[in-house]
TrEMBL record, chain A:
Pfam families assigned to the protein according to its UniProt record, in alphabetical order: Thiolase_C, Thiolase_N
GO CC, alphabetical: cytosol
Coiled-coil residue windows: none
Family: Belongs to the thiolase-like superfamily. Thiolase family.
Region (Disordered): 1-33
Species lineage: Bacteria, Bacillati, Actinomycetota, Actinomycetes, Micrococcales
EC number: 2.3.1.9
Alphabetized NCBIfam families for the sequence: AcCoA-C-Actrans, PRK09268.1
Occurrences of domain Thiolase N-terminal (ranges): 39-307
Protein name: Acetyl-CoA C-acetyltransferase
Ranges for domain Thiolase C-terminal: 317-467
Keywords recorded for this protein, A-Z: Acyltransferase, Transferase
Automatic annotation (TrEMBL), chain B:
PROSITE patterns listed in its UniProt record: ADH_SHORT
Name of the molecule in the record: 3-oxoacyl-ACP reductase
Organism, scientific name: Cellulomonas fimi
GO biological process: monocarboxylic acid metabolic process
Entry's transmembrane regions: none
Location of the Ketoreductase domain: 211-387
PANTHER family membership: 3-OXOACYL-(ACYL-CARRIER-PROTEIN) REDUCTASE, 3-OXOACYL-[ACYL-CARRIER-PROTEIN] REDUCTASE FABG
Family statement drawn from the similarity comment of this UniProt entry: Belongs to the short-chain dehydrogenases/reductases (SDR) family.
Source organism superkingdom: Bacteria
Pfam families assigned: adh_short_C2
Listed InterPro entries: KR_dom, NAD(P)-bd_dom_sf, Sc_DH/Rdtase_CS, SDR, SDR_fam
């Protein structure tokens, strides 16, 4: 029989004894618990849809609620009080100030489940995992759901600053004269809506144009980018065919699979596409709609927990969330490429954990653009860059392609900004569990690890290490 | 979907008109709700010659269930149920007495949604000819009587094999099922109890407490209703459907507080994955309901290989493979229950459904041969054969054939998914352990087939 669903904060019903500090021996009050490991139990996402596609009438809240409900159904969490739900969106309506909590209230979870919103551009989803696993490690919560959602189809449209100011003045005006004065300041052009933009505010350049600069800097060829895009589609399609996503994806609004996936694409088809970014540069333009991620709608969730919570709920444990590191680069002054944060975060993360690139069975680098992945790999193989910019003694290392994005990534699946982190963490955790189970006896009980790197607007990146549980 | 005709003949002016014209007048059936009394009124128990002892035992049992039991037809008294005990009958001459005494009260004294249940024994080759004639005669009486009943009343029979007493768990279970509104759309059926196996549940209202049940094809329609009904009866439910149906599957899982398993049942390891999920998440696996099925209708003359093969693969081959994996898992050993969905098309045949008919008749054969493999563990396998059930699938039938199909039964209407679900719930209950490899129709006594 299923274990009783309890609402106790710890499986034992009482805090475990603190080992980090003992009263009387050190100053201050001991924390509730010593650090322990936090694990990934599983995940659920809805298929990602192309902008204006299957989810054109779905709001962020609709999609996040559906992703949570699918997770609840998979793991039997109906009425369960989860420790905390942390989720966010990059493109967000101001009315969605409590998006995570509202989605919880609309879901099958206990309405007593606390939730909060967070936002770190395209790293939102993985940062939610980082925060919740940290809370679990500290004993503040026993379980958590990290989520991310984005809709480019239902994006907020704002009014111009002048119209907004006039409307606010109007609402404050007491007299007819004051009201007229507020309105009189308006000009016809002020009435045009301000569409959401993902251009970098400090440079005015789109993400694609920024990447085009980096692509040129690292001499990434069109062929290499198209090959990576092709691999992404082929690998994602193969994973679907093998049933890999049967327990990671729940269909939504009639869409059973990622809408952007082109199982039948080819290098020839990709080669026919015209470049869309970097057209004004002196170097040849190489980035096309085929080797860049399209605008996408979707949501993802990851269930994280303590070992005790997972055991008490008879739930599997796929992987341990080991550590994470964020980085930011100075792209404003052109020192480094906008999306190159991962190149800096990963070496720091690995140094702290005493690991090298060779210690990872799989490497997941978010495919914002094929060139983003290739530039990062190129930087790590470049001795001069690694010495000068990373402070290493030589090249950081090489990532074998057969360990890179093994079941495809954002180029094929699409990239609903905040949902990508959850997609990658859940996918990587399941791959690790499968690889661990399939280890050859001669390999003993060696650790099976995944490295994750997700770049984000503003020169940000969040990277993480997972290890098969 | 809405049965407009049924609504018309039960309301206002059109009701009067239908009565005048002598049109079929189906009535809305009463379905079971938790807390409802087993039978909503007095129950008449009559017995034939040589059946007095069994009739007394049945009456005593009904009294223990807090029913208002009467042994003779009293003038002016209305009865909600009639139990006719014919287990000891020796000669067709003995049928007239009890049957005619019931016949005299049917028109005026059987309450709407009344229940007539016969208890008898099967006619077998070893019987004396007169005994066999009398026993088989019950079959003809019951099926004819059921066709005469109106007002949502039904008639069903329990056939007790040799060595099965009227107090056997499965006889009690079947008696309760047929007397209650749980069997609203089961009519004109004779269900054989093969053995005294099975156990009386602690709580008849929640007989599946502590049991873990798996329902395939559970995302919608009959499968979703089965999941909901098993959960209502206390089971922990794992709902299974193809990944593409995952959205509604998740909603069903969340409604029944179970878990969703997205799985194509034709996968070679489907049975193993079902066992693994149920055991890892819920600690055990007790019940498997093979509900998933597809239709690919075509006249045999026009039938293409893919239409044939896909129906066989999903409707019967997958079930065989899953059952094999259940049996070899070593986990399916706690009074396990398999219930498989057959169809009246598998009994009577249906034009354009050679493939479907093959698969559904195949199901009937499969459970007959699978059940004996489970008896060592106190288990059974049985089938339920729905007739016309109001689902998304039957809603796509063109209007005229749909209307004909609806009225072509004694209850003169289509059943609801919950009617199939109630029957499944009965067959997977602990009390049904003595029903071995049988097929029970849920068809409102559809005119086709036996």
């Amino acid at each position: 029989m299923a274990a009783p669903r309890t609402n106790s904060t710890t499986p034992s019903g009482a805090p475990r004894p603190a080992t980090a500090a003992t009263p009387g021996t050190t100053a201050g009050v001991p924390g509730p618990l010593a650090p322990r490991r936090a694990v990934v139990v599983g995940g659920n996402r809805i298929p990602f849809a192309r902008a204006g596609g299957a989810y054109v009438r779905a709001s962020n809240q609709d999609m996040l609620t559906a992703a949570i409900d699918g997770l609840v159904a998979r793991f039997g969490l109906q009425g369960e009080r989860i420790g905390e739900v942390a989720a966010g969106a990059v493109l967000k309506h101001s009315r969605d100030f409590n998006l995570a909590r509202e989605s919880v209230l609309g879901s099958a979870l206990s309405p007593e489940t606390p939730a909060y919103d967070l936002q770190q551009a395209c790293a939102t989803g993985i940062e939610a995992v980082v925060q919740l696993t940290n809370k679990i490690r500290l004993g503040q919560i026993e379980s958590g759901i990290a989520g991310g959602v984005d809709s480019t189809s239902d994006a907020p449209i704002a009014v111009s600053d002048r119209l907004r100011r006039a409307l606010l003045d109007l609402s404050r005006a007491r007299t007819t004269g004051a009201k007229l004065a507020a309105v009189a300041k308006l000009r016809p052009k002020d009435l045009a809506p301000a569409a959401p933009r993902t251009n970098e505010p400090r440079t005015g350049l789109s993400m694609g144009e920024h990447q085009a600069l980096t692509t040129a800097q690292w001499n990434i060829t069109r062929e290499a980018q198209d090959e990576l895009a092709l691999a992404s589609h082929q690998r994602l399609a193969a994973a679907y065919d093998a049933g890999f996503f049967d327990d990671l994806v729940t269909p939504f609004r009639g869409l059973p699979k990622d809408q952007n996936l082109r199982a039948d694409t080819s290098l020839e088809k990709l080669a026919k596409l015209r470049p869309t970014f970097g057209l004004g540069l002196s170097t040849p333009a190489t980035m096309t709609a085929g080797n860049s991620t399209p605008l996408t709608d979707g949501a993802s969730t990851v269930l994280v927990a303590s070992d005790e919570w997972a055991a008490a709920h008879d739930l599997p444990v796929l992987a341990t969330f080991v550590d994470a590191e964020a980085a930011a680069v100075d792209f404003v002054h052109g020192k480094d490429g906008l999306l190159m944060g991962g190149a800096f975060a990963v070496p720091r993360l690995l140094a702290r954990n005493g690991l090298t690139l060779d210690d990872f069975d799989i490497v997941e680098i978010h495919e914002a653009f094929a060139a983003t992945v290739l530039s990062t790999l190129a930087a790590w193989e470049d001795e001069e860059f690694c010495r000068a910019r990373l402070g290493l003694e030589g090249a950081f290392g090489k990532v074998d392609r057969d360990r890179l994005n093994v079941h495809g990534s954002s180029l094929a699946a699409g990239h609903p900004f905040a949902a990508t982190g959850g997609r990658i963490v859940a996918t990587a955790a399941k791959i690790l569990a499968e690889k661990k189970a399939a280890l050859d006896p001669s390999e003993g009980d060696r650790p099976v690890r995944a490295l994750i790197s997700i770049c984000a607007a503003g020169g940000l990146a969040v990277t993480a290490i997972l290890e098969a549980a | 979907m809405t049965d407009t005709y049924l609504n018309l003949v039960n309301t206002g002016l059109t009701k009067k008109l239908a009565k005048k014209l002598g049109l079929p007048r189906p009535v809305p059936l009463v379905r079971w709700k938790p807390g409802q009394p087993l039978v909503a009124g007095p129950v008449l128990v009559v017995g034939s010659e040589h059946s007095e002892k069994d009739a007394d035992a049945v009456a005593t049992t009904l009294l223990e269930w807090d029913l208002d039991v009467r042994r003779t037809v009293e003038p002016g008294q209305r009865y909600a149920g009639v139990v006719v005990v014919l287990t000891g009958i020796q000669h067709p001459d003995e049928l007239g007495g009890p049957v005619l005494s019931v016949g005299g009260m049917l028109r005026e004294q059987l309450a709407p949604a009344g229940r007539v249940v016969t208890l008898s024994r099967p006619a077998v080759a070893d019987d004396a000819p007169a005994v066999a004639a009398a026993r088989q005669g019950v079959d003809g009486i019951l099926r004819s009587l059921a066709k005469e009943l109106r007002g949502g009343s039904t008639g069903n029979g329990i056939v007790l094999s040799d060595g099965v007493g009227v107090g056997a768990p499965s006889v009690l279970g079947a008696l309760r099922f047929f007397l209650s509104t749980r069997s609203a759309f089961v009519d004109g059926q004779l269900l054989t109890v093969d053995s005294p196996a099975g156990s009386v549940p602690q709580d008849w209202e929640r007989p599946l407490v502590g049991r873990v049940a798996v329902v395939t094809g559970a995302a919608r329609g009959i499968g979703a209703a089965i999941a909901e009904t098993l959960a209502r009866d206390g089971a922990t439910v794992v709902v299974v459907d193809v990944p593409a149906a995952g959205e509604s599957l998740a909603q069903v899982a969340n409604r029944v507080r179970g878990t969703a398993l997205q799985l194509d049942i034709t996968a070679p390891d489907a049975g193993e994955r079902i066992v693994e999920h149920a055991v890892k998440r819920h600690g055990r696996i007790d019940v498997v309901v093979h509900n998933a099925g597809i239709l690919r209708d075509k006249l045999l003359a026009n039938m293409k290989r893919d239409r044939w093969d896909s129906v066989i693969a999903v409707n019967i081959a997958a079930q065989l493979r899953i059952n094999e994996q259940l049996l070899t898992s070593g986990e399916f050993t706690h009074e396990p229950r398999i219930v498989s969905l057959a169809s009246t098309s598998g009994i009577a045949g249906n034009r354009g459904q050679t493939n479907y008919g093959a698969s559904k008749a195949g199901v009937i054969g499969m459970v007959r041969a699978t059940a004996p493999l489970l008896t060592a563990f106190g288990g059974t396998a049985n089938a339920v054969a729905p007739g016309f059930i109001e689902t998304d699938m039957t809603a796509r039938i063109p209007r005229v054939p749909r209307e004909v199909a609806r009225r072509a039964s004694s209850l003169q209407q289509g059943g609801k998914p919950v009617d199939v679900a109630e029957t499944v719930a009965f067959l997977v209950s602990p009390a049904a352990g003595g029903i071995v490899g049988r097929t029970l129709r849920v068809c409102g006594q559809n005119l086709v087939g036996q």
